[in-house]
């Protein structure tokens, strides 16, 4: 067991709270299954403190086969939630319609009106075909500029989902 997990258990157990450590073996929606050594598995372990779908939330999903620390809710073993993770699969935060999600090495930033990846992709595509008005007539971006715009578009796709 890692030193960080031992410290996390100490923080909770010193307060008389029921704490378990186990391995995440299945994920389903906002819950998971946690297998424990020499103990029955914990089913429907909450990834959030309370059950339900909330418009403003923070949802952390652990990686399969990672170790987690679970805390019983109101002292009930059948009612548990995760309070510490060794590895994280994804994090999603939603506040007031704005969403920030980190998953598979990419970010997603959006709200009900706009998506950052779409905006940047559109902007870079528009720049590649832009016509520039100058005192001496119509101009365009140089081939070097267009290559740079394409490079930026590719990097945006690598970073944003």
UniProtKB/TrEMBL annotation:
Entry keyword set: Coiled coil
Domain of life per record: Bacteria
Name this protein carries in UniProt: Phage baseplate assembly protein V
Statement: the UniProt record of this protein carries the keyword Coiled coil: yes
Coiled coil: 106-133
Lineage: Bacteria, Pseudomonadati, Bacteroidota, Flavobacteriia, Flavobacteriales
């Amino acid at each position: 067991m890692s030193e960080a997990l031992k410290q996390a258990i100490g923080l909770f157990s010193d307060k008389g709270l029921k704490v378990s450590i186990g391995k995440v073996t299945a994920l389903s929606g906002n819950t998971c299954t946690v297998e424990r050594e020499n103990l029955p598995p914990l089913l429907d372990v909450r990834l959030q403190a309370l059950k339900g779908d909330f418009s403003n939330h923070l949802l952390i999903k652990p990686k399969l086969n990672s170790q987690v620390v679970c805390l019983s809710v109101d002292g009930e073993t059948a009612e548990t939630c995760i309070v510490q993770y060794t590895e994280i699969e994804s994090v999603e935060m939603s506040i007031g319609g704005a969403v920030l999600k980190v998953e598979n090495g990419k970010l997603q930033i959006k709200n009900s009106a706009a998506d950052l990846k779409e905006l940047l992709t559109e902007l870079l595509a528009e720049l590649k075909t832009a016509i520039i008005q100058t005192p001496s007539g119509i101009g365009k971006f140089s081939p070097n500029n267009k290559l740079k715009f394409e490079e930026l578009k590719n990097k945006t796709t690598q970073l944003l989902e």
